[in-house]
Design brief:
Blueprint (H helix, E strand, L loop, with lengths): L2 H12 L5 H13 L1 H68 L1
The structure holds zinc ion (ZN).
Zinc ion binds next to helix 1 and helix 3.
Pfam family, one: zf-HC2
GO molecular function, one term: zinc ion binding
Organism: Clostridium collagenovorans DSM 3089
Amino acid sequence: MECVNFRNYMHKYINGELSEELKLEFEQHRDECPMCKMFLEEELYLESLIKDIKEKETEYICKESNKRESFNEKNTYSRKQAVNTIKVMYYIAPAIVIFLIG
Ligand SMILES: [Zn+2]
């Protein structure tokens, strides 16, 4: 395999999309050509970094949506409290008015 082909096949190899035959040729070239081996290792490193970032991103989005949910819970809770306060006021207000008027 030529170096040019090796680099063209690199992504397919990483994604496991190469046929058995090409894979063998690819791996043979990797073992014979230090430059391409270095290239491949760099690419694998980059891929792992990207994967890591994507995982962290998903984790972050999950955490954020959890936060938002608990915020909504708090929000409905305080809304309930407000409604209760208004109800209490509704009952107390006439009593106060009656008390003031005598
Ligand atoms: Zn090469």
